[in-house]
């Protein structure tokens, strides 16, 4: 096998190659971060931490929860006659009854886990600030 680099340049070549690989890896990492950041701009995605309500913060204890899919969720919630209140979040809403206790989460056909979780928390708090 014919040697391409003289013996004196082999160590230097290896260092240059390692630096090139490091730069390539750093570029891939930066591209990966920018792709993740571009995906997180969806307004339905909310990655803020959630603390479960405690004690008197729970306004509806063990509610039955229903899920409806409607094209215009917020408008639907406003028109429901048997409700003690409702909250709207992004492309969905939730309304509740304290006497039953029950909540109905209403979303469009395209929703996220984050959206469902936020609406469920509004249900547990019955619209009162946490």
Secondary-structure map with pairings?
Blueprint: H1 7-39, E1 64-69, H2 73-79, E2 85-89, E3 92-97, E4 102-107, H3 113-125
Parallel strand pairs: 1-4
Antiparallel strand pairs: 2-3, 3-4
Keyword list:
flat, 130 residues, 4 strands, 41% helix, alpha+beta, 4-stranded mixed β-sheet
Shape: flat
Number of strand elements: 4
The main β sheet shows up as:
4 strands, mixed
Rg over CA atoms, rounded to whole Å, is: 27 Å
Spatial order of the strands forming the largest sheet: 1-4-3-2
Give helix % range.
40-55%
* Distance between the ends: 74 Å
Find the structural class using helix and strand composition. Answer: alpha+beta
Q: What would your notes on this structure say?
A:
The protein has 130 residues and is an alpha+beta fold. The chain is 41% helix and 18% strand. The protein has 3 helices and 4 strands. It has helices at residues 7-39, 73-79, 113-125, and strands spanning 64-69, 85-89, 92-97, 102-107. It has a 4-stranded mixed sheet with strand order 1-4-3-2, with helices on both faces. A hairpin with a 2-residue loop joins strand 2 and strand 3 (92-97). The longest helix is centred in the first third of the chain and has 33 residues, at 7-39. It is flat. The chain starts with 6 loop residues before the first helix and ends in a 5-residue tail after the last helix. The model is unreliable at 21-38 (pLDDT under 50).
């Amino acid at each position: 096998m014919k040697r391409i680099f003289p013996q004196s340049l082999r160590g230097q070549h290896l260092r240059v190659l390692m630096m090139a690989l490091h730069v390539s890896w750093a570029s891939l990492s930066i591209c990966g971060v920018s792709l993740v950041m571009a995906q997180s701009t969806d307004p339905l995605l909310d990655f803020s931490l959630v603390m479960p309500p405690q004690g008197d913060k729970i306004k509806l204890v063990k509610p039955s929860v229903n899920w409806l899919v409607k094209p215009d969720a917020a408008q639907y919630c406003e028109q429901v006659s048997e409700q003690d209140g409702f909250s709207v979040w992004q492309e969905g809403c939730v309304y509740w009854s304290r006497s039953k206790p029950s909540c109905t989460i209403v979303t469009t056909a395209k929703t996220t886990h984050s959206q469902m979780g936020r609406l469920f928390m509004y249900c547990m708090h019955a619209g009162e600030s946490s």
